[in-house]
Specification:
2 copies of one chain form a homodimer. By secondary structure, chain A is an alpha/beta fold. Chain A folds into 2 domains: 211 residues, Rossmann fold, CATH 3.40.50; 91 residues, Rossmann fold, CATH 3.40.50. The first copy, chain A, is 48% helix and 16% strand. Chain A is built from 14 helices and 10 strands. In chain A, the strands form 2 sheets. In chain A, strands 1-2-10-7-8-9 form a 6-stranded mixed sheet, with helices on both faces. The termini of chain A are far apart. At the A-B interface, helix 12 of A face helix 12 of B.
Chain lengths: 313, 313
């Protein structure tokens, strides 16, 4: 499957003028605690503060000029809404964002700042899908899914690709698992650009749909999702699940306390702001130390958009 | 005065193996807000989390082997206590730290982690000085002042020196003002390594002793110091004041709200953890925008040691 390799390289080249190449940081102290050599790919320093900028940019660039003119639409209340808005604005494309009317005002304001046009609707999935459909019909805009879209997946995969370019000898790559876009892209990058590099997921035990999906072989859902890792409450989709099933070695579940401890460690010791979802990958490494002992491990820090009024410490 | 120039270079070379060369970060968005081009020298990424590591290391390295063997002593409840402890530990030198018995347990624990030997005493200056004197007599250790010591001042100055090496065309360098060690060192670096680069201080209006000292021409004190910039409550000393008087262009006073706003901007937009004292320099730039309009401005981010249980937002 040489094509996936070439495809990832093509995507990296395509989005490169529109995104930051983010730095890779290390911490002697966290290495000592983990008993491994960790390399943090800092997508919290990405434009808009998260890796989602990569996938959004790629999805828009991949549209025809005619489709670009008509715009893009998505439903999201999180980072993808902001990412699609900013990517669209940078590329001079209209962005229509469907948000639940219950979404925090601060998130709506952020989308507006980035130029997204918000349509509010009731917060059920059915309402959001219907609203997005209506906008598509009215405007001719193209729907872009936050995680279950191959262009988005390949875009997200470029974060892992860059990390492997900087550190080709990584033995394991650890990614948080939410909707599955980031880990599916990372798994492809590890497979096609690593030297026998495994891809492992970290997931909150409170929203362990992906862990159960790997067990059962079909896409599972969460009945509840009481986790501070609010970017990881979503479930896998039919585009990313087959990739995850084939290329992800294992998913490690972590408790809320594990997440908070890892979050605090990153903030206190690395002096960088990362969102709780980002700490889940480090939490997985610290939970199963034997699995990672003395290994070179890449860790995807997914983003840094934090609501400071709701800190867990 | 070629000697100060040579002296600074010698110090930079001497401490270089023992400290990090910290990165210089920029933010497009904060540039837009400020109307200037800002370069942040990130000493929050320094070892131990603050620039104080530089001065402490230089002061110890400058002692004779015999004096090093007998150790160093200081009284401090802040970053300098931790810096002297870690610098001493790295250089295999005993460090005696006098701390008020009222100091937070978390600060005492940090000093112990870095190998400092704590002696507690009542929190008056008189008690602290007497305790430090007694330890000097008993152990033969050398007293190192956190800011009013020429070796410490020159050590701190290397942060500005590195910034000017990276960006030789800076027109203004802005430093927070507390005990005066950092700004005195920065002013010397600007004078001897800048191209007509001015040095300006930022100071909390609630602890504006340095601003008043520049006006009156003598060292003033603070009767109260109700500021979240807790590293800036201290006053100038006879070693650093003459340097500040001669080489610092101006001190800009900022309100507590100015500091909080600048702090939030750095956390939210740059995604880095800096302590409130560090935000005072940016607050000064944002307060007097006309003074900095369209200029290339270096900003010293002094440190990133934050008590997360006492955040102002």
């Amino acid at each position: 499957m040489e094509t996936a390799r070439q495809e990832l390289q093509k995507v990296a080249k395509r989005i490169q003028p529109h995104i930051h190449r983010t730095p890779v940081l290390t911490s002697r102290l966290i290495n000592e605690i983990a008993g491994a050599e960790l390399f943090f790919k800092c997508e919290n320093f990405q434009r808009m503060g998260a890796f989602k900028m990569r996938g959004a940019t790629n999805a828009i660039l991949n549209l025809s000029a005619d489709k670009q003119k008509k715009g893009v639409v998505t439903h999201s209340s999180g980072n993808f809404a902001q990412a699609l808005s900013l990517a669209a604005k940078s590329l001079n494309v209209p962005a229509y964002i469907v948000m639940p009317d219950s979404a925090p005002e601060v998130k709506k304001a952020a989308v507006r700042t980035y130029g997204g046009q918000i349509t509010e609707c009731p917060s059920t999935l059915k309402d959001r899908e219907e609203t997005a459909n209506r906008i598509q019909e009215e405007t001719g805009a193209t729907f872009i899914h936050p995680s279950n879209d191959l262009d988005v997946i390949l875009g997200q995969g470029t974060a892992a690709l860059e990390l492997l370019e900087d550190h080709p000898d990584l033995e394991i790559l650890v990614s948080p698992v939410g909707g599955g876009g980031l880990i599916a892209g990372a798994a492809l990058a590890a497979k096609y650009f690593g030297k026998d590099c495994k891809c492992i997921g970290g997931e909150p035990a409170e929203a362990d749909d992906a862990w159960r999906s790997l067990k059962s072989g079909k896409i599972e859902t969460n009945e509840t999702a009481n986790t501070i890792a609010d970017g990881l409450k979503t479930q896998l989709g039919d585009q990313n699940f087959p990739i995850i099933l084939e290329h992800v070695e294992e998913i490690i579940r972590v408790s809320e306390d594990d997440i908070k401890e890892a979050l605090r460690l990153i903030w206190e010791r690395m002096k960088i702001i990362v969102e709780p979802s980002s700490a889940v990958a480090l939490a997985a490494v610290l939970k199963e130390k034997e699995r990672f002992r003395n290994k070179k491990v890449g860790i995807l820090i997914s983003g840094g958009n934090v609501d400071f009024s709701r800190l867990p410490f």
